[in-house]
Each structure stands twice: as structure tokens, then as C-alpha cells.
Amino acid sequence: MNYIFAHPAEIANSALLHIWMVGISMLLAIVIGIPLGILMTRHRKLRPAILGSANIIQTIPSLALFGFLLPAPWLGERAYRIAVVTLALYALLPIVRNTFQGITGVDPAVREAAEGMGLTRRQLLFQVELPLSAGVIMAGVRTATVISVGVATIAAAIGAGGLGEFIFRGLAMVNNQLILAGALPAAVLALGSDLILGWIQGRLTPPHA
What's this model's pTM, rounded to 2 decimal places? Predict the structure, then answer.
């Protein structure tokens, strides 16, 4: 803890960079993942390909995935770009899966009633299915965010910065204070994001769910 109290500005800057990488990657994952989950509910034949691809990404070790993207055009020019894309890819599975499960879990009676009122498929999606499944979708976002906070520490291995820098420096120097200077704030970020998103999830979940 001595290092943390002695270098608050350095740790704060690394924490802000860590939050920025996770935040941008989560926005990217949400923009891609929710439409993919919706697509799975509309086209049964696409389900194996979409879920299979997301599952395969999860099986690739994070450090290996960072390495695979290093030679990529444009991405490889900036380490933080690789970090953001990698984190977004890792976040896809829980978001895609929960979006699919949330929408398909809507009560068929509610869906039939909405269709009986003359709602189009688009109206049904935005006025009935998404609002009722918002809590389940947010649970996926919550899981993905916590995972991303942890995986983002590995991004320091390719020079992307963040709290992982302290962990890698501490490992290289066999210095537990440096390791804790990165690990403790990362743990606080993970717990904090889990609590905040858990509260939002509770607000979005219908009372009867």
C-alpha cells in the first residue's frame, strides 16, 4: 500500500486509461452484440455461426489474441486500438447470449397480445421485447464489463498502458508493492462496475421477472 499512497497521480492516470479502454470496448461490444443477439432470434440458421464464433473467441488466451492483432493494418499502429478491439471481442459472448435469451424468454402470451393489437415486428421488438428483456441484457453487459476490467490488465503487455503496467513491472522486479498497486485498483474497478451495473439491472428488470 505504500506505493499507492506515494504515487496517487500515477495510479489515477493509469486507472483513467484503464476505464477509458474498458468503456470504449464495451460500447463497441454493445453496438455489435445486441444486434447480433436480435439477429439470432429472427434467423435460426445463423445461431450456430454467431454463437460458435463468440465461443471460439472466448477460448483464445487473451495474450495470444493481443498478439494476433499486432500485425493488423491500422490496429497495429496503436497498442490501445488493439486493446479496445480485443476487449470488445471478449465481451461479445455474454452480450449476444443474454440478448438472445432475454428476447426469446419473453412470455409468448404477451407477444401474441401485442401482435393481436397490430404491432409490426419492428414495433414488437422495440416496444415489447427489448423493454421486457432489458434486465437480462444488462446482466450480460455486467458480466462482460467485469471480464473486460480483468482482461484489460493484460493489455499492458503490448504497451497499451492501464493498471496492468504496475503488475508487469512488479513481476519483472519481484516487487509485491508494484503488483498490488495495479491489482488492487483493478479489483476495485471490477467490484464498483459490478455494483453499479447490478443496480441498473435491477431497475431495468420488470417486477414480475
Answer: 0.91
